Amino acid sequence: MQADAARLAATPRVSRLFRLQYEEAQQSWVLLYPEGMVRLNQSAGEIMKRCDGQLSVVQIVADLETAFNATGLERDVLGFLDIAREKRWIEG
């Protein structure tokens, strides 16, 4: 339970190794890095653009639930952020 509390209190930010931007040509959010680009799906882009190092995961989830008139997104957001950390897309 404490591990989940710590995960929810974290304030993730896009890693310094990447630059997040919206690519009109791709019609999606992308992560740019020296060797290439990662095209994000809509859900991943919405989460990543909120990873500014200021918002906690709890706040990110609340913002997404408000923006998309949804509930119960916590598990999906935590799952994505775990993957993003493994891929070194985010820090924090």
TrEMBL record:
Gene name of the record: pqqD
A GO molecular-function descriptor: quinone binding
InterPro entries given in the database record: PQQD (IPR008792), PqqD_bac (IPR022479), PqqD_sf (IPR041881)
The protein's assembly and partners: Monomer. Interacts with PqqE.
NCBIfam families from the UniProt entry: PQQ_PqqD (TIGR03859), PRK02079.1 (NF002535)
Family from the record: Belongs to the PqqD family.
Superkingdom in the source lineage: Bacteria
Keywords: PQQ biosynthesis
GO biological process: pyrroloquinoline quinone biosynthetic process
Function noted in UniProt: Functions as a PqqA binding protein and presents PqqA to PqqE, in the pyrroloquinoline quinone (PQQ) biosynthetic pathway.
Pathway: Cofactor biosynthesis; pyrroloquinoline quinone biosynthesis
Coiled-coil segments: none
Protein name, UniProt field: PqqA binding protein
